[in-house]
Every structure is written in structure tokens, then in C-alpha cells.
């Protein structure tokens, strides 16, 4: 796709990748391309979040992710987004909410081990038939030949339903999960005292609902749901109220935004590259669907960055990093690093190394729920292939005004039209 380069206002740093406008207007590709070519480890001295290092290429990000003893994820130092300033610089109306992705070992290790079995291979197989049935049933309700909102009717519904299943959350209230995810995953919601107070109120609303579920599960434990699993763990059954809310935010935002955005990217991305869409329409080999799933996740990169904080003075590929320096790992850029993914701005559904993407992170903090996201997106692709349906996007999606969750269009923002695919024979293994 062609990129329109816009003139940057004088008061905005052209290479500050944390600028919300770059993501709202889908203009992040060119500055990242420039940094990859000229300064892949770049010190941005001035941003609304303070000075930070931008790392935009693949290998340095892997290097940093592999050294958690030097590059911390801890909430105490600011956590996993470029917005965080740590417990020493909390603003009025802000309270820390620790979550295991924003912890260092050994605390991270113990809590991650608690929830990891819920996303393991055996659990994925247990979910497979239900995921296929729910996806098929929902697709069959979509109007063919009429305009509708893809995000509202499909992306939100499928991901919200899966979240409710994972938590065994009251089904009739499940759409609160999406509302809480939208509010609590927004790093631009800390700007004013009023915004911080509203965010805190949302967090407490979520916490109260889950405390009720927690108390119910304490008396009536389940076997597979996340709340029951946490209750049965020494590492998580005595969490503070703030830590409880933090881990809920992690699991809800992680489970909602990554999959929802990838499902939206399936529609939008393949519409942008019709020749690649044609490959999936002509070839129903399950291996191609799986590869296409990885490629769409690579191209989309649902979380644009993760942040680390240096715990000591260190040298990073010729750059002197000082203790407590803030480092933004731009996964969205690494996933288009030309040295790893040639022609990376394009979706290529049969790309040989699509699985090497960093959209789920790398190392000890790799997304614990990655297999669930992969299952959901692959199932969507396969069920659309079976029905020989094509998504035609009618207008550009309206993107979120933030540099963390990437795209996350809300309901009412992605108009689509389903049409039947009639041309060409189908090949399948």
C-alpha cells in the first residue's frame, strides 16, 4: 500500500513513535522505516511520556527480551508500556496494578506457571470443536450482500464469547469484558486527573464483578476456568486487590485485543491484498490457513510495542544505555524488518517464515494465550473458506488514538460487505 507522508507539526517530534496521531492516522510505517534504515536503536529525547529509546529492528528486540535480568518488565519501574513512570512518579488518581507480565522472576515465573496450563496444547484441543461450532454459527448469521459492521458483528462477538468461556463469566454480562478491555488497555487515559479517575472507576467496577465471581468459585470451583485455576494456586490465591485487578486487566486486554484486532486485520488486510486473498480462496489446504494466520498477525501486530527498563548501565549494540532508561520495543516495526521479512509491508499468505513474527513477544514474556488467539483466527479463516465467502471492506477503519493497542476499532467503525466467491476451482489436501 502507498504511504502518504504528511508534514509533521513543529511541536511534534517526527521520530517520536509514541505519538498517538501516528497510529490514529496509520502513519507509523514511514518513520519506522527510516529508523530501521538509519538508527534502529534511537534515543528520543522529547515525548509526552518523557525520553525513551526506540528499538525498531528484529535482532536487538530479541536480544533485549532474552535478558530479563538487565531489561526489566517490572511495574515498579514503569511496566510494559512507554507510558509508565513507576511507583516513584505516580500521578494523582493513579494506583499501581501489578500483573504478571509486568513482573520479573521469580514472581513472574510463579504466576505465569499458574495460568499457563489453561492455554496449553491439551486445553486448545478441548476448545477446538466448540470454537469451530461457535465461529461457524456466527458466520452463518452474517448478511451476505448487505453492508454491516465486521468488528461489531464478528470480531467483538467471537473474542468476547471466548473470554467469557475462559473465565466462566456470567454469559448475560459478557459484553462488559469488551468495555473494560477498551477502557483499561488505553495508555492515553492517564492524561488528566478526570481521565485517571474515570479509568480507576472502571477498574473498580471490573474488580467488584470479578470479586463476586471469585467468591462464587471459592465455594463452587471449576476445572478449567481461569478464576478456579488462580484460586487453587499458592502463587495467586492471596493476591492483593490491586494485583488481582492488574492480572484481570492483563488477561482481559490480552485475550480481547490481540484476537479482535487480528480478526479485523483478516478482513481489512486481505481486502488490501486481493491477490493474496485469492490464494486462500483457491487453496483450502489447512497448512496454508495456518500460515496465513501467522502472516496476518505479523502484518497487523496487535500490540505495537512493549517496554523494558534498564536495571543497570549497559552497552547495547554500540549504544550506552543507563540504568532506569526507558526502552520501547516496537514489535510493529520488527515484524516489517526487511532483513527478516522481505517486502514486509505486504501480506503474503504463503510467506515461508511468517511464524517468526514477534507479535506475541519473545522469551519469558511471550504471550501466554498465543495458542488461543491462533486457534480462533485459523478457525475463522477455515470457516470462511468452507462457505466461499469474501469480505469486502467499504471504508477505512477508524483507528484508536494510541501507540500500544494497534488499531482496535470499536463497533460501528469497520463497514464490510460479504460476497460469495464463485471464480476458480478449490484445491485442498
From TrEMBL:
GO molecular function: heme binding; iron ion binding; monooxygenase activity; oxidoreductase activity, acting on paired donors, with incorporation or reduction of molecular oxygen
InterPro entries per record: Cyt_P450, Cyt_P450_B, Cyt_P450_CS, Cyt_P450_sf
Superkingdom, taxonomy of origin: Bacteria
Entry's EC annotation: 1.14.15.3
Keywords from the UniProt entry: Heme, Iron, Metal-binding, Monooxygenase, Oxidoreductase
Enzyme class: oxidoreductase
Pfam families, per database record: p450
Family as reported in the entry's similarity comment: Belongs to the cytochrome P450 family.
Protein name listed in UniProt: Putative cytochrome P450 alkane hydroxylase CYP153D2
Originating species: Sphingopyxis macrogoltabida (Sphingomonas macrogoltabidus)
Lineage: Bacteria, Pseudomonadati, Pseudomonadota, Alphaproteobacteria, Sphingomonadales
Amino acid at each position: 500500500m502507498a504511504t502518504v507522508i504528511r508534514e509533521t507539526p513543529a511541536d511534534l517530534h517526527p521520530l517520536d513513535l509514541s505519538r498517538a496521531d501516528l497510529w490514529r492516522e496509520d502513519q507509523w510505517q514511514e518513520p519506522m522505516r527510516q529508523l530501521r534504515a538509519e538508527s534502529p536503536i534511537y534515543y528520543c529525547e522529547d515525548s509526552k511520556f518523557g525520553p525513551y529509546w526506540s528499538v525498531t529492528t528484529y535482532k536487538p528486540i530479541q536480544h533485549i527480551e532474552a535478558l530479563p535480568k538487565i531489561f526489566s518488565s517490572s511495574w515498579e519501574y514503569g511496566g510494559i508500556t512507554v507510558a509508565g513512570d513507576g511507583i516513584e512518579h505516580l500521578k494523582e488518581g493513579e494506583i499501581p496494578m501489578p500483573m504478571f507480565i509486568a513482573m520479573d522472576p521469580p514472581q513472574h515465573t510463579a504466576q505465569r506457571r499458574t495460568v499457563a496450563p489453561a492455554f496449553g496444547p491439551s486445553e486448545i484441543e478441548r476448545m477446538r470443536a466448540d470454537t469451530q461450532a461457535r465461529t461457524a454459527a456466527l458466520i452463518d448469521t452474517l448478511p451476505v450482500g448487505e453492508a454491516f459492521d465486521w468488528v461489531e458483528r464478528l470480531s467483538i462477538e467471537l473474542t468476547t464469547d471466548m473470554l467469557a468461556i475462559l473465565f466462566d463469566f456470567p454469559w448475560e454480562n459478557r459484553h462488559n469484558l469488551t468495555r473494560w478491555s477498551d477502557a483499561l488497555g488505553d495508555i492515553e487515559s492517564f492524561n488528566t486527573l478526570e481521565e485517571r479517575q474515570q479509568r480507576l472507576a472502571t477498574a473498580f467496577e471490573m474488580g467488584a464483578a470479578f470479586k463476586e465471581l471469585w467468591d462464587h468459585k471459592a465455594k463452587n470451583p471449576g476445572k478449567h476456568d481461569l478464576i478456579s485455576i488462580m484460586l487453587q494456586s499458592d502463587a495467586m490465591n492471596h493476591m492483593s486487590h490491586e494485583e488481582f485487578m492488574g492480572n484481570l486487566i492483563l488477561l482481559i486486554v490480552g485475550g480481547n485485543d490481540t484476537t479482535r484486532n487480528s480478526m479485523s486485520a483478516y478482513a481489512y488486510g486481505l481486502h488490501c491484498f486481493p491477490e493474496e486473498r485469492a490464494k486462500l480462496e483457491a487453496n483450502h489446504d489447512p497448512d496454508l490457513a495456518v500460515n496465513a494466520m501467522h502472516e496476518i498477525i505479523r502484518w497487523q501486530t496487535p500490540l505495537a510495542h512493549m517496554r523494558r527498563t534498564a536495571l543497570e548501565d549497559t552497552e547495547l549494540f554500540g549504544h550506552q544505555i543507563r540504568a532506569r532508561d526507558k526502552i520501547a520495543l516496537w514489535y510493529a516495526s520488527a515484524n516489517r524488518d526487511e532483513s527478516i521479512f522481505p517486502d514486509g509491508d505486504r501480506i503474503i499468505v504463503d510467506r515461508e517464515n511468517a511464524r517468526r513474527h514477534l507479535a506475541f513477544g519473545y522469551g519469558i514474556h511471550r504471550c501466554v494465550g498465543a495458542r488461543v488467539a491462533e486457534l480462533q483466527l485459523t478457525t475463522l479463516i477455515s470457516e470462511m473458506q468452507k462457505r466461499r465467502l469474501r469480505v469486502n471492506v467499504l471504508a477505512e477503519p477508524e483507528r484508536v488514538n494510541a501507540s500500544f493497542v494497534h488499531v482496535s476499532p470499536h463497533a460501528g467503525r469497520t463497514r464490510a460487505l460479504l460476497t460469495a466467491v464463485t471464480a476458480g476451482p478449490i484445491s485442498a489436501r
